[in-house]
């Protein structure tokens, strides 16, 4: 349980705060930033949870804000940290951007949300779709009493009763992001797959859904043999609608879904992965005059698949100017604010490779240290493709009214925020790169 929840700016000034138990003085909020600064000065890693003078501080950072919860009791820190993340997602649903200006402009509705989302320090309703049914940004007349929906007090607090659709449909997306670090020798130093199962449900009534995946643990526990590849997921996290006891017993993902769009589950796989989009660059530097690049990209995935919206960010010296480009496909733009040029390819087929050449003026006499050069980063999206091999075996929809629903399943693989390659080498001979 939390005694107090506050939202602070980057300097530690309280923008809004709500006391739930009155056992932690509000003056302790002002001590938070000095404690953080003291830890940073002592080169101590600032933990999301720490204690001082008998007060527990639990916080997360979002954009230029701190979301802080304080408690005097031995609280469930993981629960409160999760609540702060849910508070961010709810505020994002309401205001699109959660920043200092949006907090100041909407303090009345934020107080209403804090009162509904937590009661006497215990988290209550955190589902934004239910909150939006009775806490709106429109003004209400005094004689009109706004009643919370029944879902707030029901066992299924994330879905309202009486939902009706003329056409019942379920859309399921399996989205995997690949993070990777490749060293200068072309060896994969680190790789991981971050996956998420996202759903859009347009179903009438109170349907129960059952989702089956090619889960390795499920096949081993039931003694059944997998027809194809099975995967072992790590760090699995579920939406609150999933019946965890059922999953622990027989690995069946059973749930009554929220209405509309939501993330059903997320997972991680640390299995070795080869680079799906391979990029290497050869650099010829003429000190004090110019620098030339030859960049090669190759799609290292199945030929029947295609990577869409490929963007390759190649670093250049900060003082480079007069760019000239020549590419076999796509387009190239210079981004001086990022000290790089970006090669954009709309579609890259599996097994295909392309070349591009770049030329820059280099007024600086000082040479660039190769070891300190930033790596190449890549963005892409491959539809109908999963790196891990995860498969939806079945998606069953059960409702008392017995209507039929259409389930749609789609797979997407994208580059994560940390897909980088240090495959930049200096050319010894200027004959490698033809002049532009």
Automatic annotation (TrEMBL):
<dbReference type="GO" id="GO:0006886">
    <property type="term" value="P:intracellular protein transport"/>
</dbReference>
<dbReference type="GO" id="GO:0016192">
    <property type="term" value="P:vesicle-mediated transport"/>
</dbReference>
<comment type="similarity">
    <text>Belongs to the adaptor complexes medium subunit family.</text>
</comment>
<keyword id="KW-0968">Cytoplasmic vesicle</keyword>
<keyword id="KW-0653">Protein transport</keyword>
<feature type="domain" description="MHD">
    <location>
        <begin position="167"/>
        <end position="422"/>
    </location>
</feature>
<protein>
    <submittedName>
        <fullName>AP-1 complex subunit mu-1</fullName>
    </submittedName>
</protein>
<dbReference type="Pfam" id="PF00928">
    <property type="entry name" value="Adap_comp_sub"/>
</dbReference>
<dbReference type="GO" id="GO:0030131">
    <property type="term" value="C:clathrin adaptor complex"/>
</dbReference>
<keyword id="KW-0813">Transport</keyword>
<dbReference type="InterPro" id="IPR050431">
    <property type="entry name" value="Adaptor_comp_med_subunit"/>
</dbReference>
<dbReference type="InterPro" id="IPR011012">
    <property type="entry name" value="Longin-like_dom_sf"/>
</dbReference>
<dbReference type="InterPro" id="IPR018240">
    <property type="entry name" value="Clathrin_mu_CS"/>
</dbReference>
<dbReference type="Pfam" id="PF01217">
    <property type="entry name" value="Clat_adaptor_s"/>
</dbReference>
<dbReference type="InterPro" id="IPR022775">
    <property type="entry name" value="AP_mu_sigma_su"/>
</dbReference>
<dbReference type="InterPro" id="IPR028565">
    <property type="entry name" value="MHD"/>
</dbReference>
<dbReference type="GO" id="GO:0030665">
    <property type="term" value="C:clathrin-coated vesicle membrane"/>
</dbReference>
<dbReference type="InterPro" id="IPR036168">
    <property type="entry name" value="AP2_Mu_C_sf"/>
</dbReference>
<dbReference type="InterPro" id="IPR001392">
    <property type="entry name" value="Clathrin_mu"/>
</dbReference>
<keyword id="KW-0472">Membrane</keyword>
């Amino acid at each position: 349980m939390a005694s107090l929840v506050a939202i602070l700016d980057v300097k530690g000034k309280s923008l809004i705060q709500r006391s739930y138990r009155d056992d932690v003085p509000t003056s302790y909020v002002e001590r938070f930033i000095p404690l953080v600064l003291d830890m940073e000065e002592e080169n101590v890693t600032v933990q999301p949870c720490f204690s001082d003078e008998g007060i527990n501080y639990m916080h997360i950072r979002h954009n230029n804000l701190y979301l802080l919860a304080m408690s005097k009791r031995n609280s469930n820190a993981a629960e409160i940290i999760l609540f702060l993340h849910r508070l961010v997602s709810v505020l994002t649903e309401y205001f699109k951007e959660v920043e200092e200006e949006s907090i100041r402009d909407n303090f009345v509705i934020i107080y209403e949300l804090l009162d509904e989302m937590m009661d006497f320090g215990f988290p209550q309703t955190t589902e934004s779709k239910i909150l939006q049914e009775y806490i709106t940004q429109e003004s209400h007349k005094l004689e009109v009493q706004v009643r919370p929906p029944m879902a707030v007090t029901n066992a299924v607090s994330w879905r309202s009763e009486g939902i009706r659709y003329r056409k019942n449909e379920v859309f399921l997306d399996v989205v995997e992001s690949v993070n990777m670090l490749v060293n200068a020798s072309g060896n994969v130093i680190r790789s991981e797959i971050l996956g998420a199962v996202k759903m859009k449900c347009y179903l009438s009534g109170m349907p129960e859904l059952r989702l089956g995946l090619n889960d390795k643990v499920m096949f081993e526990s039931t003694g059944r043999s997998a027809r194809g590849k099975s995967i072992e997921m790590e760090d699995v996290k579920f939406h609150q609608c999933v019946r965890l006891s059922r999953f622990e017993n027989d690995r069946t993902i059973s749930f009554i879904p929220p209405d509309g769009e939501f993330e059903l589950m997320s997972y991680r796989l640390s299995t070795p992965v080869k680079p799906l989009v391979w990029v290497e660059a050869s650099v010829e530097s003429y000190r004090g005059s110019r620098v030339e690049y030859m960049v090669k990209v190759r799609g290292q995935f199945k030929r029947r698949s295609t990577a869409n919206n490929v963007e390759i960010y190649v670093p250049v010296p900060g003082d480079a100017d007069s760019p000239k480009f020549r590419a076999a496909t796509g387009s190239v733009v210079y981004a001086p604010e990022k000290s790089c040029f970006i090669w954009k390819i709309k579609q890259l087929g599996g097994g295909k490779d392309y070349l591009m050449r770049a030329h820059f003026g280099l007024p600086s006499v000082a040479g660039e240290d190769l070891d300190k050069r930033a790596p190449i980063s890549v963005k892409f999206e491959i539809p109908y493709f999963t790196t891990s091999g995860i498969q939806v075996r079945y998606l069953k929809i059960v409702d008392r009214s017995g209507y039929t629903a259409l389930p749609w399943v789609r797979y997407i693989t994208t580059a994560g925020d940390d897909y980088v390659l240090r495959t930049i080498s200096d050319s010894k001979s200027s004959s490698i790169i033809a002049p532009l």
